[in-house]
Write a structure and sequence with these properties.
The protein is 61% helix and 0% strand. The chain is built from 15 helices and no strands. The protein starts with a helix and ends in a 10-residue tail after the last helix.
């Protein structure tokens, strides 16, 4: 019963804390396809509106209810509570080996979150879809692989977007916890999360202000290491975000330059990372799969 209660509490937590809201997730996917389209197969550019549409897709699954199979399966993929583990750099790439170690720490498996794995596993699916598109034997197979790639690329964007929002990397996800030391007197406002990611973005953030903050497209030398570095950077912005909140920078009714610029950088970082992942997946799909001989 205790475990069941803990699971239900965590589902409630993760259901109410969806990073960026619809506008932000749509923006991340649009930024990424604008940046990467010229280096991807043409069908990705042709399907850009579907790719953008699927940015918020995992949050739409929540509409099936907090106790539905849909939420039970995927709710924990939206966050990673780093305090329950330790350094993000020490996370290993296998989800189930990681879960064994989490269980050994006597941490509830659903409580810690699996955002790093949602990103890397969808990356693997995209490589696979691109590879099957390249090697399709019939027009029908090629079309099916194309549809798979478009869908997976869009959904992966959701989790990459989650990773740039600092409150998705911590137990301090929605105002500082009462049980945590709080020497800097950070807000305990339980509406901070949604105000930051949705209300403020809706009121103050436009893609034209985010676009110039994007970085150039590049192939990631090591995808798993790059994901961990990306999430570590997101976590590093937790206290700066809370400091800006103290200064009144995230009031949707009175947007301020520092708060607007701070969030714009986070969204641009997500768009850049997503574009890099798509581009790297495309290049990798043209190479022999690990453990296989070149054709």
């Amino acid at each position: 019963m205790r475990t069941l209660c803990a699971v239900l509490v965590c589902l409630l937590i993760s259901t109410s804390a969806a990073a960026w809201g619809e506008k932000g997730h749509l923006m991340v996917n649009r930024l990424a396809i604008d940046a990467a389209a010229s280096k991807l197969p043409e069908f990705m550019n042709s399907a850009r509106e579907r790719i953008v549409y699927n940015g918020p897709e995992p949050d739409r699954w929540r509409e099936e209810g907090r106790t539905s199979v849909m939420n039970t399966v995927q709710a924990a993929d939206h966050f990673f509570d780093s305090e329950l583990w330790g350094g993000i750099s020490t996370i290993e790439p296998d989800r189930y080996s990681f879960m064994e170690k989490v269980a050994a720490k006597k941490v509830e498996l659903v409580q810690i979150g699996y955002l790093p794995y949602a990103i890397i596993e969808n990356y693997g699916k995209l490589v696979n879809a691109f590879r099957f598109w390249r090697n399709a034997r019939t027009p029908q197979d090629r079309e099916s692989a194309r549809e798979n790639a478009v869908y997976v690329a869009g959904v992966m964007g959701h989790y990459v977007g989650d990773g740039s929002m600092p409150m998705h990397m911590t137990i301090q996800y929605n105002g500082w916890l009462d049980a945590s030391p709080n020497p800097k007197n950070f807000t305990k406002d339980r509406g901070f999360h949604s105000r930051y990611e949705a209300a403020y973005v809706n009121a103050a953030i436009e893609i034209a202000a985010v676009q110039p903050k994007m970085q150039g497209l590049r192939r990631l030398p090591n995808v798993w290491d790059s994901i961990k570095q990306y999430l570590t950077l997101g976590l590093s912005e937790l206290e700066p975000a809370y400091e800006l909140e103290k200064a009144g920078e995230f009031n949707p009714q009175q947007p301020r330059p520092k708060g607007t610029a701070f969030i714009a950088v986070e969204l641009a970082r997500a768009g850049t990372m997503l574009g890099n992942l798509w581009y790297t997946a495309w290049l990798e799909s043209g190479e022999p799969a690990p453990g296989q001989n070149a054709r």
